[in-house]
From TrEMBL:
Coiled coil: none annotated. The lineage of its organism: Eukaryota, Metazoa, Ecdysozoa, Arthropoda, Hexapoda. Gene3D superfamilies: Classic Zinc Finger (3.30.160.60). This is C2H2-type domain-containing protein. It comes from Anopheles funestus (African malaria mosquito). It comes from the Eukaryota. Residues 31-55, 71-94, 99-122, 175-196, 201-224 form the C2H2-type domain.
Length: 261
């Protein structure tokens, strides 16, 4: 059995599939069922809706109160209250997820995200791990992407080092936190603002922060698979507003599904 969503800790054990059912067609299909060892897949939302209705008939109470893994997105942690909303979510949020892991359901817009995912969750198979490329879904990085990312960077203190020096200049006096207004000793303010998820390295898509690059990349890969693999460093000296991860990936890693399947 293989875990279809190894990044999903809360339901990872429910979403298992026999290895024989993890076919190329299952991986590349936009709609797939993650119920325990189901393995159903299709290219149309109408067919997927009909399949989900069969699962729903087997549920005698509200689907969310029982095992309703089939109502969870196969590509992220989104959980829907209805079949309609789930299918709409897949068609819109994951529309441009053109790069698919060959070991599970993980899919992303950014091939670098797939590689980070594989190194985190399929390391024992990494020598043979492939990225299934779906050209019809690819959306190239553009200036519009950069503008959207820049709009996310509405941060009060961009330069953490500058802020640290500013706090040290205040010595031992007490000042108000700019986030919660709590009165804190200036020399304790850096520790305090970490409670607000303010760290040297920040996610550009949500409020998550940390002081470790590998951890922030894993966060973006796990929580924002539909986005580009980027993060923000709170330092204005010789550092761009955001870092876009672009590691070299061997062309041999890629399988063009429209040519090979």
């Amino acid at each position: 059995m293989v875990a279809l969503q190894p990044w999903n800790g809360k339901d990872g054990n429910k979403m298992l599939l026999h290895t024989s059912k993890l076919t190329d067609q299952f991986l590349t299909a936009p709609f797939k069922c993650t119920a325990f060892n189901c393995g159903f897949y299709t290219n149309t939302s109408q067919t997927m809706a009909s399949h989900f209705q069969r699962h729903q008939k087997l549920t005698t109470v509200h689907p969310i109160t029982r095992d309703s893994s089939w109502l969870e997105c196969c590509y992220c942690n989104y959980v829907s209250l209805s079949v309609h909303n789930l299918l709409q979510h897949i068609e819109t949020v994951h529309k441009y997820s053109a790069y698919q892991c060959d070991r599970c359901c993980y899919r992303s817009r950014d091939p670098n995200s797939v590689r980070v995912h594989q190194l985190n969750y399929h390391l024992e198979y990494d020598a043979d791990a492939k990225i299934v490329w779906i050209p019809s879904r690819q959306k190239e990085y553009s200036s519009m992407d950069r503008d959207i990312i820049m709009n996310h960077l509405k941060i009060n203190f961009n330069d953490m080092e500058e802020y640290q020096n500013h706090m040290k200049a205040h010595g031992l006096i007490y000042i108000a936190c700019h986030v919660c207004d709590l009165i804190v000793a200036a020399n304790k303010m850096i520790d305090h603002i970490s409670s607000h998820n303010i760290f040297m390295i920040q996610c550009i898509y949500c409020d998550y922060g940390i002081n470790d690059v590998n951890t922030i990349m894993k966060h973006v890969v796990d929580e924002h698979s539909d986005e580009l693999l980027c993060y923000h460093v709170r330092c204005s000296k010789n550092v761009p507003p955001f870092i876009r991860v672009q590691n070299r990936i061997s062309p041999e890693r890629f399988i063009n599904c429209e040519q090979n399947f």
